User: Fold these one by one.
Assistant:
Number 1:
Amino acid sequence: MRQAGRYLPEYRATRQRAGDFMTLCKTPELACEVTLQPLQRFDLDAAILFSDILTIPDAMGLGLSVVENKGPQFARPLRSGNDIRNLTVPDMVTDLGYVSDAVRLIKRELQGKVPLIGFAGSPWTIATYMIEGGSSKNFSKAKGMLYGQSEQLHRLLELLSRAITDYLNAQIAAGVDVVMLFDSWGGILSHAAYSEFSLAYMRRIIQGLRAADTGRATPIILFTKGGGLWIEDIARSGCDAIGLDWSMDIELARKSVGAQVALQGNLDTAVLYSSPASIRRQVAEVLAAYGQGEGHVFNLGHGIHPDIDPDQVAVLVDAVHELSRPYHAG
């Protein structure tokens, strides 16, 4: 997942050298360094762009800071319809060009050895941070707007959809091989609200990416944490793969979507706190649950935790490479 370096001591050293998290994100040379660090330790099959899902609202002028042990906070959260009407789509060169610069630098350093995955947050997920002013446990302000001022929320989500489409297209133009939409908070919504306020806007983004495609069909992964109930709807969104969190049975997921899309996931991150034997056993269970054939991208069911022992990650990576061979023979 996108936090792939946070558990590494070399990442922490680079972040300390940067001084703060956003400087790390906005300095292409440092973002490149952090992106490559996991590949220098492990035999991974892809690199993940180091960035953050909140770069877009930061570029919109909301005053983002990432506070140690507290997470992201906005100095100017959205509190009214006027706040939303005053927002504009950031310029992908002048406001967010550092991300494309990082992509180009990373691609040069990778020399084609592995693909590079770019990403963005979903409109709904980004909107929750902008409205709440940061992280939240009950999302009272965001949900209050959803049920009490839905027209204003739709205006915000439409604006974010355009910004995210431009942002991902800029990453694709700079060289990423795959893009992923992180809908981290889609799972907090009701069935009807998920369809109207989250999935509908992700569909728009996917359509916008397809429309701008210049000939190389860039795969699109859609990940909704807690979205297992809607997997069939997600499969019809136009995405190429669905990221699954650890709560979804990957065998049932495959039966539900068939060959429409690939599946990414979905080992519980907490398994990495257990013994090497347990890690291997849990990897084997996920592989067996998916079964024979193509279309499975082994991954964790959510982001890796910063206190994970890197040696445990090495056990996981080696186990996946060894134990997955029989499932892809021939």
Number 2:
Amino acid sequence: MKETKPLKIGDLVARVPVIQGGMGVGVSLSSLAGAVAAEGGIGVLSTAQIGYREPDFDKDPIGANLRAIGTEIKKARQIAKGGILGVNIMVATRKYEEYVKAAVAAGIDLIISGAGLPMDLPKLAGAAKTKLAPIVSSVKSVQVILRYWWKKYNRLPDAVVIEGPLAGGHLGFHKEQLQDIEGLHYDNEVQAIIDQVNEAAAEHDKNIPVVMAGGIYTREDMEHYLEMGASGVQMATRFVTTYECDADEAYKQTYIDAKKEDIVIVQSPVGMPGRAILNPFMRRAKEGQIPHEKCHLCISTCKVTDTPYCITDALINAVKGKVNDALLFCGANAYRATHLEHVKEIMEEFA
């Protein structure tokens, strides 16, 4: 088995070319991100309702989240042993700009941003050393980002993350596309995105690594994309069933217990399709609206009065282990989990 090359994002060098995908709410915080960074990968905290454990979260969710960004990054640094840390911030987050500025102020190494195109991320990050990586799912979206960032900010992404249709959580595809994933021939799109990024990088004499996400579970999966020209992979689902993952043990057990047919495409209350484990909660949600209390100010696209259930409540229940009253986001390969493992074992497999 040949050794992999490090993943270089500017002056950041990850010995193992693996970014651990950001998972909210609270699934990837300081424990998981710190452990991945310590083992030579890039550990990523999700800022989605990151302050859900703060005492004032119900009264002031935005304030609690902005405070928690700093405290969780600090805690992750203590575990990371000098390793690389990133945050995942969704463009659709209310007060997105403030979240970006809080992460930059806390000295984060890398911001990964999707769930919409992060058009003005360079302006928000300013002159900070923080590296910026947009998430794209199509050639069109990467072209828009490359052109706009260069024209308006004289800047190119430091890395580009391609998120494919096998990813977990919210997906950048139409529901119809997700009903026939094989028919998408998505590797063709991946190749076209890699070629587009390489062309822009060569034109400006820069190096822009492309990182593939969605459906990566084994080293073999990674090698497939490295051979296509990717510089690394982003992987989330595999890290859920680790001892170091920040989620409750009951949440991890749902992955271990899941069968392939339990993993379904759902319509999220925020208007995007997503991938999750079919459970009693999702069955109830199909039958009608699940009552909820006040809004937690999470996603700008959520229509509070019409929403079938509160996504924040459902995801907090998940991370706390109340799995029958929860939205259990997962990637397409969640059913492949059979046991808990240590982050170190996974990173050794991918090194």
